[in-house]
């Protein structure tokens, strides 16, 4: 299944100027699809995304409603921004972009893509010898 949704990711990149990389990853850090980067870069970002998902879930315990689910992770750097949002069961959508990107447009397009693809973004949980 890896790579079969690359063109959806490419479409998101075309819709939001200054987008650099778009990755669909499993919750355990496996690349499911990618656009705008090498496989090695995608795997590195997917590993980071897995860690971010885990850390942000832990931070949710300190929100007013302890069971709050993370809806968007944003890391801002001097020259760029990293976004990550849950895409479906056991997966996330991650985007990197230049610092001048339109945050509202990016969040909306990411949300639209997740809603549009729905179940296609699900990644089966791994275990008992199954591959994700």
Automatic annotation (TrEMBL):
**PANTHER family, A to Z:** SERINE PROTEASE INHIBITOR RV3364C (PTHR36222)
Roadblock/LAMTOR2 domain sequence ranges: 6-97
| Gene3D superfamilies from the UniProt entry | Dynein light chain 2a, cytoplasmic (3.30.450.30)
Q: What is this protein called?
A: Roadblock/LC7 domain-containing protein
A Pfam family (short name) is: Robl_LC7
- Top-rank taxon of the source lineage equals Bacteria
Identify the SUPFAM superfamilies for this entry.
Answer: Roadblock/LC7 domain
**Origin organism of this chain?**
Streptomyces pathocidini
